[in-house]
Each structure stands twice: as structure tokens, then as C-alpha cells.
Write a structure and sequence with these properties.
This protein has five helices and no strands. It is mostly helical. It has a single domain, classed as Up-down Bundle (Ferritin). GO terms for molecular function: ferric iron binding; oxidoreductase activity, acting on metal ions. Pfam families: Ferritin.
Length: 154
């Protein structure tokens, strides 16, 4: 039994939101890695390195999110099937051109920033400062990454 000062019904709601965040983050991780491997063109080196920085950061983030779900007393999703059912980020079927890679990642980062902002209010409402801190940190990273991607658009 989990007894951390947050009612079970609130823990369920927060964990469910975190499961969606985990799935979105993992999907964005896969996209960033996919683009890292397949980017071409005059900006190859710059984009290749930037996408690597982004997927490396996301690799650490998914672990932190999953561990918070576990701390709340629930199993973290971890299969492609579970992530596909939980994510709201659209996968890219083909290799897009570099400009579309940037736009796709920008949309993903902005989506996650907005999701974090919504979930933050729920966590704060029940005094779940641990989740609130995680969400605030994630929001800051995604907002900064979105700004950098937006700055690269033509």
C-alpha cells in the first residue's frame, strides 16, 4: 500500500496523465532518433548533432517519468503497443526533408509543453510537489527546445 499523503484517486489521475506524458516523450524520443539517423543536406552536421542532444535528453526524461509513475504506486507502460495507445504524437512514416523534421519536432515539443502545463495544475491541486516539480522541469525543457526549433524555421 502506498502511503505518501496523496489519496489513491488523485494518484490514479496523476499517474494516468504521466503515462500519457511518458508515451508522448518516448514517441518524440523515437522521432528525434529517427531524424538524427536520416537527416541530409547542407545543415546535416548541425541538425544531426541537435537531434542527438534532443533524443539524449528525452532518454533520461522517460526514465524519470516512469520512476515517478512507480513512486505513485502504479506500473509504468513500456511496450510499443502501450505507447501507441497512449500517445497523441503522430509518428512519421517516411523520412521527411530537414525542414519538415524541424516542424514535426517543434509540434511535438509544443504539445508536450502544453500537456505538462495542464497536468501541473492537477498535481498542484493535491499538493503533489514531486510531480509538480517534474512537470515544471519538463515544461521548461520542451519550451526551450521548441524555441530553438522555431528559430531554425525558414
Amino acid at each position: 500500500m502506498v502511503d505518501i499523503g496523496i489519496d489513491k484517486i488523485d494518484r490514479v489521475e496523476i499517474a494516468q496523465g504521466l503515462k500519457h506524458l511518458l508515451a508522448d516523450s518516448y514517441t518524440l524520443y523515437l522521432q528525434s532518433h529517427f531524424f538524427h539517423w536520416n537527416v541530409t543536406g547542407p545543415q546535416f552536421r548541425e541538425l544531426h548533432l541537435m537531434f542527438e542532444e534532443q533524443y539524449t535528453e528525452l532518454a533520461l526524461a522517460v526514465d524519470e517519468i516512469a520512476e515517478r509513475i512507480r513512486s505513485l504506486g502504479f506500473a509504468a507502460p513500456g511496450t510499443y503497443k502501450q505507447f501507441a495507445e497512449l500517445t497523441s504524437i503522430k509518428e512519421t512514416a517516411n523520412v521527411p526533408d530537414p525542414e519538415d523534421m524541424i516542424s514535426t519536432l517543434l509540434v511535438g515539443h509544443e504539445h508536450i509543453a502544453k500537456s505538462c502545463r495542464t497536468m501541473l495544475a492537477s498535481a498542484q491541486k493535491v499538493n503533489d510537489e514531486s510531480t509538480a516539480g517534474l512537470l515544471s522541469d519538463r515544461m521548461r525543457v520542451h519550451e526551450k527546445t521548441a524555441w530553438m526549433l522555431r528559430s531554425m524555421e525558414n
